[in-house]
Amino acid sequence: MTDDRLIVALDVPNAHAGLELAGRIGDAVGFYKIGLGMLTGGGLALANELKQEHGKRIFLDMKLFDISATIEAAVRGLAQFDLDFLTVHGDPHVVRAAKQGAAGTGLKILGVTILTSLDRGDLDDGMMRPGDLREMVIERAARAFEAGADGVIASPQEAAPIRALPEAAGRLIVTPGVRPAGAALGDQKRVATPARAIADGADHIVIGRPIWQADDPAAAARAVLNDLP
Ligand SMILES: O=C(O)c1cc(=O)[nH]c(=O)n1[C@@H]1O[C@H](COP(=O)(O)O)[C@@H](O)[C@H]1O
């Protein structure tokens, strides 16, 4: 049995590279994220192959944002694929429409709160309203849950207060922005270690570069898993 608390982001350019990487990782990992970087590189075909041929769980990360009718139609189409998780922006109208589109399927909708690569200065650049970023993440999580989200995406730095929300009971907290001690942060700003994220209430951690860029991705994944509480 793999420990599906670890989701590895397959942020490589195409399905061929993704399949090769998943092959090198082998049994160490049972849950993969396929995202926008592979949209034109056969991402959905790879999702299908990893699920059907290799028994992996699949998180399709599309971070959808649009008017309700468009979101509902897009999610209805994606829900025909055998996927486990799908991201949309955590705005209530988007989450509600996505849940409509996924109705009757097992697809879980995760609402993105505020990207883990952003800090208050980035929100100012984007003309987002003033206020404490952490409080905004917690409030967006609560609103996404109220709108019916099966889970939220937040940084590990907000996992504990989100877990404490009454609205979070029975819902998922998924945290990217996770870095083993000493790993390069890259563009991530709100980070914590895998062990801290899980101890603070994350159900799943998403890790990309520290695993797929490692000389031995399977060993890097195992090291993360060995470190989890
Ligand atoms: O939705 C996501 O998965 C996501 C949300 C977020 O706030 N931050 C974030 O980094 N991600 C994704 O998580 C992965 C993190 O990759 P690394 O920074 O390489 O570990 C990338 O595929 C991002 O697209």
UniProtKB/TrEMBL annotation:
Give the catalytic activity. Answer: orotidine 5'-phosphate + H(+) = UMP + CO2
UniProt record, GO biological process: 'de novo' pyrimidine nucleobase biosynthetic process; 'de novo' UMP biosynthetic process
Q: What does the record give under GO molecular function?
A: orotidine-5'-phosphate decarboxylase activity
* Organism domain of life: Bacteria
Q: Which GO terms describe its cellular component?
A: cytosol
The record ties this protein, via Pfam families, to: OMPdecase
Q: Which residues form the active site?
A: D61, K63, D66
Q: What CDD domains has UniProt attached to this entry?
A: OMP_decarboxylase_like
- The Orotidine 5'-phosphate decarboxylase domain covers which part of the protein? 5-224
Protein's recorded name = Orotidine 5'-phosphate decarboxylase
**Which source organism?**
Roseicyclus elongatus DSM 19469
Name of the coding gene = pyrF
